[in-house]
Specification:
The protein folds into 2 domains: about 20-55, no CATH class; about 55-255, Roll (Carbonic Anhydrase II), CATH 3.10.200.10. It has 4 helices and 16 strands. It has helices spanning about 1-25, 45-50, 160-165, 225-235; strands spanning about 65, 70, 80, 85-90, 95-100, 105, 110-120, 125, 130, 135-140, 150-155, 180-185, 195-200, 215-220, 220-225, 250-255. The protein is globular and about 40 Å long. Bound molecules: zinc ion (ZN). Zinc ion (ZN) binds next to β7.
Length: about 260
Amino acid sequence: MKKILYLFLPVSVLIMTLSACKQEVCADCEAVHWEYYGEHGAEHWDKVCTDYAPCGGQAQSPIDILNATTDSTLLPLQMSYQNSQTNIYNNGHTLQYNYTAGSYMTLDSQRYDLVQFHFHAGSEHSIDGNRYPAEVHLVHKNAATGALAVVGIMFKEGDENPLVNQLFEKLPKEKGLYYRSSAEFNIMDLVSDEQKYYTYSGSLTTPPCSEVVTWYVMSKPVTASYMQINKMTKLFYSNARPVQPLNGRTLKMSI
Ligand SMILES: [Zn+2]
């Protein structure tokens, strides 16, 4: 009898462990609350639920931008940005500014519509190991293929940025809320005249981390005042995924 118990116990423990694991892999990712730290933090995203498995992939973002190869064939970014009305969504991780339809970027003769932009503080990408206080992501989508082109712009402390004041004037304070107004702005005001950029193939930096993004990280940061950066740090408290390995991907720099 004792022998049987000894045998039975480890088997039952094994079955219990297996069923617990099964529950951890949740089929419905909508129900999973991901975070940057802790149990559902960035280190575990690929195991939080099945749809987030790409987070453990080989072509993930952000990266540390280091030893980029200069490519003289890379053209300046062709942005055609119109004014947008104000439509801000608080998704619980960042403030997402949905852009009024009609603005786009042209890449290889293909149109990528500017869909939204949002903020991270501190920056997600680093350049030569240096992180910046904040980074904005301009998300463009090719309607035909679904491919994404995201422009990353770094903030450094310096002169006050008039557009930042306008963007943060009135905000949806809680997760799930919107703030809408007819007040117009143009995100082109945030793009530096210096158009040199780094480009590589990567992913969304939040779950499901889909590897469908061509990244364009502008080499020159734009400025925001100490107070403005302070506000961004408070608003977006550490919503930055750690840098991911390059895994042999090509990292190019325009001239
Ligand atoms: Zn982002």
